[in-house]
Structures are given as C-alpha cells and as structure tokens.
C-alpha cells in the first residue's frame, strides 16, 4: 500500500479523478514530548521559525460528494517553514496528485493541468474545491504529538512511556499514536486519525 518519495514542485502530470480527493489528506510528523494531563488546553512551543520536512506514506478512506465510500493511498512530502506548510501528494508511482500550501493569511491548491486556486484559508479552499475540508492546522500539531492550542483536548499518555502520547481527542477527531521511532531516529512513526461526522479515516506511516 505504501511507497516513499520526495519533491515540492509539480514535476509530473496525473489524472484528476482521485487527485482532488487526495489533496486533503496529510501532514508530517515530529515529536514534542507530551506530559500529561487527561485534558489540556496546552499551547505547544512551536517556534514561528521552525523548519520541518517530513516524508511518508498514507492511506485514506473518505466519503465523496455523492455519498460513496472511497479509498486512496500514496506518498506525501511535507515542508513547514514557520507558519507556512506546503504539502505534496503523490501516487505510488511518484506522480504528483496535488500540492496544498497553507499560511495564516492565504491558502492555495494546485492540481495537474489546472490553474492554482486560492482562498483565505485552507479549510475554505478544500471545502470549495473538494466538497469537504480537513483540519490542516490541527494536524500540524497532532502530528507533532501535541494538542492544538486552539481548543480543549483530551489526551491519554502511553502507559509504557509516559513522555509520549497514546491518544488525543480534539475537535471531533481521535488521533491514535501507534508507534514511535527508536533512537537514533525520533518522532512519530505511525498514527491513525478518525472522524465520525463526516466520516474520514487517515492512516500515516512516517519515514525518518
């Protein structure tokens, strides 16, 4: 189901069908150690100068605009520079499906053979372009093993390693941390994100 790739510009062309739906999926991962209360409004110490680059594989199950359940999978590249995130989604052959760029002031979505589309924020852009929206800003924190600072969250600490989170419940999402990388690598290795309404399942494996 999975394969790896690296890039941040539209290099190849791919068909549009699943591409539009895929443009919603992902983000990358890093670990800020979690110390844990069962509920939290913690504000993670993510510097506005932070630069993070992540690569990995994804599988997504979603309901399309016609109410049909669909599955998609492939590879992703994520680059974060301060508050700006650029996410590239690729199919298993390495062809670019979509590029999403999100910043506090604007968002853009690029699809093969199409002009970029822009909006004030990434949620509005995805809703308008794809028919549904993903919590990209929440994922930016959740994939760093930390609650987002924007709202109340319930956290569960891993009983075998109390410096790590096992689960976050926030904004209608359940984020389960299934594996962390061992030294010398560090960070989240595998996690699942699920939402009930509207239903969406995301499985991520991160390459460090």
* CATH H-tier superfamily: Lipoprotein localisation LolA/LolB/LppX
Uncertain spans, ≥5 residues at pLDDT below 50? Answer: 1-37, 41-45
Number of spatially distinct domains: 1
Summed over residues and divided by their number, the pLDDT gives a mean of 77
CATH class: Mainly Beta
Helix and strand content put the structural class at mainly beta
What share of residues are in beta strands?
A: 35-45%
CATH architecture: Clam
Order of helices and strands: HEEEEEEEHHEEEEE
- The CATH topology annotation reads as outer membrane lipoprotein receptor (LolB), chain A
Q: What's the gyration radius in Å? A: 16 Å
Shape: globular
Helical residue percent band? 10-25%
- In spatial order, strands of the major sheet run 1-8-9-10-11-12-2-3-4-5-6-7
C-alpha end-to-end distance: 18 Å
Extended strand count: 12
Instruction: Report on the biggest sheet.
Output: 12 strands, antiparallel
Briefly say what this structure is.
This protein is mainly β. Helices cover 11% and strands 41% of the residues.
Q: Could you outline the blueprint of secondary structure elements for this entry?
A:
Elements: H1 17-22, E1 39-40, E2 51-63, E3 69-81, E4 84-90, E5 96-102, E6 107-110, E7 117-119, H2 122-130, H3 136-142, E8 153-157, E9 165-170, E10 173-180, E11 188-196, E12 199-207
Antiparallel strand pairs: 1-8, 2-3, 2-12, 3-4, 4-5, 5-6, 6-7, 8-9, 9-10, 10-11, 11-12
Describe the structure in your own words:
Strands 1-8-9-10-11-12-2-3-4-5-6-7 form a 12-stranded antiparallel β-sheet. The relative contact order is 0.22. It is globular and about 50 Å long. Residues 1-37 and 41-45 have low confidence and may be disordered. The two termini are 18 Å apart. It has one domain (17-205): Lipoprotein localisation LolA/LolB/LppX (outer membrane lipoprotein receptor (LolB), chain A), CATH 2.50.20. The chain has helices at residues 17-22, 122-130, 136-142; strands spanning 39-40, 51-63, 69-81, 84-90, 96-102, 107-110, 117-119, 153-157, 165-170, 173-180, 188-196, 199-207. The longest helix has 9 residues, at 122-130. It has 208 residues and is mainly β. Monomer. It is found in: Cell outer membrane. One of its GO terms (cellular component) is cell outer membrane.
């Amino acid at each position: 189901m999975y394969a790896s790739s690296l890039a941040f510009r539209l290099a190849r062309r791919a068909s549009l069908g699943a591409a539009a739906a895929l443009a919603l999926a992902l983000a990358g991962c890093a670990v800020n150690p979690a110390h844990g209360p069962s509920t939290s409004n913690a504000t993670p110490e993510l510097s506005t100068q932070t630069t993070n680059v992540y690569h990995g594989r994804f599988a997504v199950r979603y309901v399309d605009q016609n109410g049909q359940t669909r599955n998609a999978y492939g590879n992703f590249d994520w680059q974060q520079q301060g508050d700006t995130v650029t996410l590239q989604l690729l199919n298993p052959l390495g062809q670019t499906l979509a590029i999403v760029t999100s910043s506090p002031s604007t968002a853009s979505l690029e699809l093969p053979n199409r002009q970029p589309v822009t909006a004030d924020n990434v949620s509005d852009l995805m809703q308008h372009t794809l028919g549904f929206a993903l919590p990209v800003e929440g994922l930016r924190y959740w994939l760093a093993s930390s609650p987002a600072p924007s709202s109340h969250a319930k956290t569960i600490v891993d009983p075998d390693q109390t410096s790590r989170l096992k689960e976050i419940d926030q904004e209608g999402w359940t984020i389960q941390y299934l594996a962390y990388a061992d030294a010398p690598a560090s960070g989240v290795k595998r996690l699942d994100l699920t939402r009930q309404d509207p239903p969406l399942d995301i499985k991520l494996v991160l390459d460090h």
